[in-house]
């Protein structure tokens, strides 16, 4: 994902049903199932899922952009497995009809039961990227039937537990036990100090609200700020500002972007405000900093 993030990042599954095109089929202790039918362009939607998610395209074409720079184009019958905590962007352009898709979110309770029944254990904390899957006929029919049968029913929770476990079993036969284990557990232990630090550093240069980061690290806002101060020895506002300004310094030293372009690159709406904060941190304006660095390099080469 190379384009700048939108300031409004959707947290899935909770905020997906804020959209009028999304309808919750089922929700319970074991996860949730949501159907979406999109009739208009839906461009550049940034989102993070707090649970492992499978999105299955019934009809239409939707493009997903991942943190690692991979573009995943999904068409009819394609499926994407999105691990928790992954910053993603989706893009749909209305061309050949509406987008129809079903999204399934798996709770930790269900994941634990699935791995227990499979006799699988997690030895280390995996990091997985989103995975596009070419769904076979069995998987396609299973997801479509789940939507068709249960969307208007009061469904027993034990029945949905069994259906979701069956879906995970189908996926594991399709993509392999080891891969599905990594996808299900990626990002799960964000509450530990080490994973808290990695999560924060991962999004250091993005415009992600503190409330979202608190949610991703499994903390209330008060405990998030307290742990942030303890781990980074700084307030969130100061630390994130310093990371952005350090990035600006690197761009001034190594790139050819103008000061205005650098300000935009690190998410400053005002170039003058960027210059003011850069000077406060480094003792000179960005332009002066670049000139001094260029002069130093020329002197060292002579």
TrEMBL record:
<protein>
    <submittedName>
        <fullName>Transcriptional regulator, AraC family</fullName>
    </submittedName>
</protein>
<dbReference type="InterPro" id="IPR009057">
    <property type="entry name" value="Homeodomain-like_sf"/>
</dbReference>
<dbReference type="GO" id="GO:0003700">
    <property type="term" value="F:DNA-binding transcription factor activity"/>
</dbReference>
<dbReference type="GO" id="GO:0043565">
    <property type="term" value="F:sequence-specific DNA binding"/>
</dbReference>
<feature type="domain" description="HTH araC/xylS-type">
    <location>
        <begin position="194"/>
        <end position="292"/>
    </location>
</feature>
<dbReference type="Pfam" id="PF22200">
    <property type="entry name" value="ExsA_N"/>
</dbReference>
<dbReference type="InterPro" id="IPR018060">
    <property type="entry name" value="HTH_AraC"/>
</dbReference>
<dbReference type="InterPro" id="IPR054015">
    <property type="entry name" value="ExsA-like_N"/>
</dbReference>
<dbReference type="InterPro" id="IPR037923">
    <property type="entry name" value="HTH-like"/>
</dbReference>
<keyword id="KW-0238">DNA-binding</keyword>
<dbReference type="InterPro" id="IPR050204">
    <property type="entry name" value="AraC_XylS_family_regulators"/>
</dbReference>
<keyword id="KW-0804">Transcription</keyword>
<keyword id="KW-0805">Transcription regulation</keyword>
<dbReference type="Pfam" id="PF12833">
    <property type="entry name" value="HTH_18"/>
</dbReference>
<dbReference type="InterPro" id="IPR020449">
    <property type="entry name" value="Tscrpt_reg_AraC-type_HTH"/>
</dbReference>
